[in-house]
Write a structure and sequence with these properties.
This protein is of the alpha/beta class. The protein contains 13 helices and nine strands. It folds into two domains: 2-42 and 153-239, no CATH class; 65-150 and 250-363, SGNH hydrolase (Rossmann fold), CATH 3.40.50.1110. Helix 3 (97-105) packs across helix 13, helix 9 runs parallel beside helix 11 (304-315) and helix 10 packs across helix 12 (325-333). The relative contact order is 0.13.
Length: 365
C-alpha cells in the first residue's frame, strides 16, 4: 500500500513536470507576448480608444479630446504636457489640476497629457504644438520617478511586463550635442505583428535601455528545461516584471541621467525659440509620500531621481516645482484620500497641485 502511494505520488509529480514542460515550451515559442492576445492591443480603456501613432507610438487619452481639454474663455496662459498624472487618469475632467487652475486664473490651461507616456514623448508632442501656443505662456513638463525607465525604454513590456501594453515608442540616446532621437521602431499598425515573434522583437529589445543584463535572460529561457521558463515567467508576471527588473538610481544609471539632462536642455531650447517659459513639475507619488510620512518628516522631500531633476532644472534655469517639506507635512496630516486605486492623484491631490502651481508660477511670477 505504501509503495502504491509513493508510486502514485511519483506519477503525479512526473505528470506535473511534463505539463510544465509543455506549457513552458509554448511560452518560449511565443514569448514574451504570449500572455495577452495581440488582438486586444487596441482594446478600449477608460472610455477612450488606444490609438497608434507612427511618431509617438502609443497614444491613448489623446483620442478623448474632452478629458481635461475643456475650452475656457480667456487667454491661454499655460499648457501642460506629460503622462496620466497630467492627463488626470481616474478623475473626471473638471477635477484635474489644469481645469481647476483654469478656473482660478480665468484663463485656459491646456492639457496635453497622454496616459503611459514618458516625458521624452511629452517633449516631442510639445515641439509639435509649440508654434500654436502663445509667446510668454508657461509650458509645464510633468515628470514622475517612473520616467527614468520610460525614457530608456522603446518597448513598454521590457519595463512593465504586467501592463499588457504592446506599445513601442521613440527614445533618445546620449549624443555629443545632447541627445539624438531614435525613431519609433513600429511605424504602423500593420507592423505590430513583429511583436508576436521573438526574432523580429529581438532587434527592438537590443536597443531598449530597460532590456538590461538581467532581462537578457529572456533569450536563455528559450531552452530546455522549459519548466524553468514556465515557473519563472508566471512568478515574475505576478510580481510585475519579467525578471524582477527595477531600474533605479542605485547604482546611478549614467545613461538615464545623461538622457534626462539632454531632454531638459532640449526642452529649454525649444521654449526659448518660441519665447515661452519652461516649467518642470515633479509630481508627488504615493510611495514617496508614504515613505516621507512614515519617517515623520525626517526623509528627503524628493526621491533620488527627483533630486536630480531639480538639480538639472536649476542648472538650466528652468523653473522647478516639486513637493516641499512644508507641503508634504500638510499632505501627511490630511485625512483625505490622496491617491486612487491605481496610484494616480485623487481629486483632492489635484486641488493641492493646482494651488501649488498657482503659488509658484502665477503669484511668484
Amino acid at each position: 500500500m505504501k509503495k502504491t502511494s509513493l508510486l502514485n505520488l511519483g506519477l503525479f509529480i512526473f505528470s506535473l513536470w511534463i505539463s510544465a514542460e509543455i506549457a513552458g515550451y509554448f511560452l518560449t515559442v511565443r514569448f514574451p507576448d504570449n500572455f495577452h492576445s495581440k488582438k486586444h492591443y487596441l482594446r478600449p480603456v477608460n472610455r477612450s480608444s488606444k490609438a497608434y501613432h507612427q511618431k509617438y507610438g502609443f497614444m491613448g487619452s489623446e483620442v478623448d479630446k474632452s478629458k481635461g481639454r475643456h475650452i475656457f474663455k480667456g487667454p491661454i496662459k499655460m499648457a501642460a504636457f506629460g503622462d496620466s498624472f497630467t492627463y488626470g487618469d481616474e478623475v473626471e475632467a473638471h477635477e484635474t489640476w489644469t481645469y481647476l487652475l483654469s478656473e482660478r486664473t480665468s484663463s485656459w490651461v491646456q492639457n496635453f497629457g497622454v496616459n503611459s507616456w514618458g516625458f521624452d514623448q511629452a517633449l516631442l508632442y510639445y515641439e509639435e504644438k509649440a508654434s500654436d501656443l502663445p509667446s510668454h505662456s508657461f509650458i509645464v513638463l510633468g515628470i514622475i520617478s517612473d520616467h527614468l525607465k520610460r525614457i530608456l525604454n522603446n518597448y513598454r513590456r521590457a519595463c512593465s511586463f504586467s501592463s499588457g501594453m504592446f506599445m513601442t515608442k521613440p527614445r533618445f540616446l546620449p549624443h555629443e550635442d545632447g541627445v539624438k532621437l531614435i525613431p519609433n521602431p513600429i511605424r504602423s499598425r500593420e507592423d505590430l505583428d513583429q511583436l508576436s515573434h521573438w526574432k523580429s522583437l529581438a532587434p527592438i529589445l537590443n536597443q531598449d535601455g530597460c532590456y538590461n543584463e538581467r532581462t537578457r535572460k529572456w533569450g536563455s529561457l528559450n531552452q530546455f528545461p522549459y519548466a524553468k521558463t514556465f515557473f519563472r515567467a508566471v512568478f515574475h508576471l505576478l510580481n510585475g516584471t519579467p525578471l524582477g527588473n527595477n531600474l533605479t538610481l542605485e547604482p546611478e544609471n549614467e545613461v538615464g541621467l545623461k538622457v534626462t539632462m539632454g531632454i531638459l536642455n532640449r526642452f529649454r531650447k525649444v521654449t526659448e525659440s518660441h519665447r515661452q517659459i519652461p516649467v518642470v513639475l515633479y509630481y508627488p507619488e504615493e510611495h514617496t509620500l508614504r515613505s516621507y510620512c512614515r519617517k515623520k518628516s525626517r526623509g528627503s522631500e524628493l526621491d533620488p531621481y527627483g533630486l536630480k531633476i531639480r538639480e538639472f532644472s536649476k542648472s538650466l534655469n528652468i523653473q522647478f516645482i516639486g513637493p516641499s517639506r512644508e507641503w508634504l507635512q500638510h499632505l501627511c496630516s490630511s485625512k483625505d484620500n490622496l491617491f486612487e486605486k491605481r496610484y494616480h492623484p485623487s481629486p483632492k491631490l489635484h486641488s493641492f497641485i493646482a494651488e501649488l502651481v498657482y503659488e509658484k508660477v502665477f503669484e511668484e511670477n
